[in-house]
Design goal:
By secondary structure, the protein is mainly α. The protein has one domain. The chain has three helices and no strands. The termini are close together.
Amino acid sequence: MGLSLLNLIRHVVSVAFEVYSWILIIRILLSWIQHNPYQPIIRFIYEVTEPFLRIFRRIIPPFGAVDISPIVAFIALRIIEWIVIRILYYLTLIFY
């Protein structure tokens, strides 16, 4: 039972990272097009992604009109996902 619970947790965490990654990609694409920032779905995307992006904007200044912090944030998110999933995977090996 413990093994299946850990597998379930690992799957849920993986899906959560995937959903957040897609929201972050949508946020990056929204920066390239004109949109209504007051539309509820757009506001939701900004509210969910801004705290994570703010971390990288403090570290990486924009180069002229180009802000590469979302790209770095996306790569960092994937690295964090890989680490978390590996930890959960090794926990399933320990409890197997």
